[in-house]
């Protein structure tokens, strides 16, 4: 797959041999163009396996073929040399020390959803997907999770207690990656980001030690864990959140023919501007290469009559082809919102929009999406706009490492394809995405969402972290002086 090649940065070593920058280290290539990594002996692998409460999975073992794959198959190769399927925090410490002492690249994976394949490595994959306990404590009003707990598991644990945190909409995204890069969902304008509710975390740092982080213990690291991005400072082994009471919601799920896109999106923007924080909105326009649709989805913590009043001007703009506006419990609504892109290949670019979008922006989106070239992936390509603000914007910009507090929209542009698509189709999808990005970027800020990492982003330090970057670098130097946690966009 050409993507495997383009994601590496080929360089020449001082001696003139071909090399590749892997995880920040220059690694020589062998005659077949594969990175020449340290090769631990079979004895060393056996010793690691014996030491684990969980299990070591190596090429040829049952489950290797499944466990090695990231969500975005674009980054499936090269495969890891081994996978530690961690069962305990001690496993995380052992795996980390074992790889570090052999100078083997490593990566942590909780849910494996990194858009840019940052939870992949040709070295040792430290897989936390099997650590997924979730406990809710009514007395303290807290939720304590293992790093690999998925959105579905978190909602299932919270439901009997009728409390919530702001979690995401993909059933299988794991809490560690979600929280470390911010984390938003349909409750975020009311409850803040996932990371805003974090009260404490346990993390195994590069020295193999466990550190507890909170406002009073390791406060710098605690600040960094709230938005400083996954994979940068160590491996998080536990997260504790403050929960909030919930109530019933009214949900809306609307779709229109694409010709109404600019007018409908402008009306939705007006609705959100005037609405209380209790309202969420994801509006978007997508195409499968044949037909395009404009959609709006969200919920209001409140009665359905209030939602109907808010939506009135939008519905007056154009009659939806599909319309659902209904009162639901919070738990029914989250089931309705659950959505997962097909596990395959995709590219995403993101930008935060800090001023209301003018008509010209909606025109550009409509024209761009209408040009989508198509692929075999039923998700196709499109633009999604997530209403920002509310409780997200009330957190001071320097209170956490998540700096995108003044946005009105988070914009995401995506293109998807499959392994059966031709190189030409892949190229056309990527070219389409780049051109669309050029056309809509003038309407957005230079900030991008660190949980939608994008390898094509040049100034990613400023885009993801803005004014937080110098402090993040200082914390990184303190907890990971040798760059054990390294990947193409590592702090
Ligand atoms: C289908 C889909 C839907 C999505 N929907 C939303 C959404 O609604 N809202 C939203 O905010 N985001 C959403 N995202 C983005 C998502 O938040 C990020 O991809 C997130 O980083 C995924 O976390 P993960 O643990 O599943 O992924 P992983 O790939 O396992 O991890 C992501 C990054 O964190 C690192 N990491 C993983 N575990 C740990 C750990 N325990 N300690 C330290 N570092 C770790 C990895 O090395 C990697 O760099 C979505 C992504 C997908 C693919």
Q: Any overview of this molecule?
A:
It is built from 15 helices and 21 strands. It is α+β, with helices and mostly antiparallel strands. The protein has three domains: 37-127, Uridine Diphospho-n-acetylenolpyruvylglucosamine Reductase, domain 2, CATH 3.30.43.10; 134-245 and 468-479, 2-Layer Sandwich (Uridine Diphospho-n-acetylenolpyruvylglucosamine Reductase, domain 3); 249-459, Vanillyl-alcohol Oxidase, Chain A, domain 3 (3-Layer(aba) Sandwich), CATH 3.40.462.20. A hairpin with a 4-residue loop joins strand 16 and strand 17. Helix 9 (261-274) runs antiparallel to helix 10 (304-317) and helix 12 runs antiparallel to helix 13. It is globular. The two termini are 28 Å apart. Residues 1-11 have low confidence and may be disordered. Flavin-adenine dinucleotide (FAD) binds next to strand 6, helix 6 and strand 13.
Can you count the beta strands? 21
The CATH class of the largest domain is Alpha Beta
**Amino- and carboxy-terminal Cα gap:** 28 Å
Shape designation: globular
Bound molecules: flavin-adenine dinucleotide
Q: Compute the number of structural domains.
A: 3
Largest sheet, described in full?
Answer: 7 strands, antiparallel
CATH architecture term of the largest domain: 3-Layer(aba) Sandwich
């Amino acid at each position: 797959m050409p993507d495997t090649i383009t994601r590496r940065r080929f360089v020449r070593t001082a001696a003139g041999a071909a090399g590749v920058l892997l995880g920040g280290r220059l690694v020589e290539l062998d005659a077949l163009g594969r990175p020449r990594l340290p090769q631990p002996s079979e004895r060393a692998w056996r010793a690691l396996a014996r030491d684990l409460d969980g299990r070591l999975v190596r090429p040829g073992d049952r489950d290797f073929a499944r466990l090695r794959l990231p969500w975005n198959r674009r980054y499936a190769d090269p495969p890891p040399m081994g996978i530690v399927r961690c069962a305990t925090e001690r496993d995380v410490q052992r795996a980390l020390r074992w790889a570090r002492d052999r100078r083997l690249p490593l990566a942590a994976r909780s849910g494996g959803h990194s858009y840019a394949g940052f939870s992949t490595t040709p070295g040792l994959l430290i897989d936390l997907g099997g650590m997924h306990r979730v406990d809710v404590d009514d007395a303290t009003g807290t939720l304590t999770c293992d790093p690999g707990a998925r959105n579905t598991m978190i909602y299932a644990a919270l439901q009997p207690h009728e409390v919530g945190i702001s979690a995401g909409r993909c059933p299988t995204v794991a809490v560690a990656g979600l929280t470390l890069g911010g984390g938003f969902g349909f409750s975020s304008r009311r409850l803040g980001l996932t990371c805003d509710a974090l009260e404490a975390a346990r993390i195994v740092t590069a020295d193999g030690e466990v550190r507890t982080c909170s406002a009073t213990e390791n406060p710098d690291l605690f600040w960094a864990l709230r938005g400083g991005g996954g994979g940068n400072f160590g491996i998080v082994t536990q997260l504790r959140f403050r929960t909030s009471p919930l109530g019933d919601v009214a949900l809306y799920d609307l779709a229109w023919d694409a010709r109404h896109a600019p007018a409908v999106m402008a009306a939705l923007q007006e609705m959100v501007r005037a609405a209380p924080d209790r309202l969420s909105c994801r509006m978007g326009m997508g195409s499968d290469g044949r037909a395009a649709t404009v959609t709006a989805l969200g919920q209001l913590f409140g009665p359905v009559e209030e939602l109907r009043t808010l939506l009135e001007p939008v519905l007056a703009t154009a009659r939806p082809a599909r319309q659902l506006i209904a009162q639901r419990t919070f738990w029914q609504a989250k089931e309705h919102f659950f959505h997962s892109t097909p596990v395959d290949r995709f590219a995403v670019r993101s930008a935060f929009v800090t001023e209301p979008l003018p008509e010209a922006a909606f025109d550009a989106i409509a024209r761009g999406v209408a040009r989508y070239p198509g692929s075999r992936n039923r998700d196709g390509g499109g633009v999604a706009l997530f209403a920002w603000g509310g409780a997200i914007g009330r957190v001071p910009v320097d209170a956490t490492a998540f700096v995108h507090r003044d946005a009105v929209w988070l914009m995401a542009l995506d293109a998807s394809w499959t392994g059966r698509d031709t190189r030409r189709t892949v190229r056309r999808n990527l070219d389409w995405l780049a051109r669309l990005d050029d056309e809509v970027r003038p309407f957005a800020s230079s900030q991008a969402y660190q949980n939608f990492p994008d390898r094509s982003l040049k100034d990613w330090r400023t885009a993801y972290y803005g004014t937080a970057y110098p402090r993040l670098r200082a914390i990184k130097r303190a907890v990971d002086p040798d760059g054990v946690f390294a990947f193409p966009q590592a702090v």
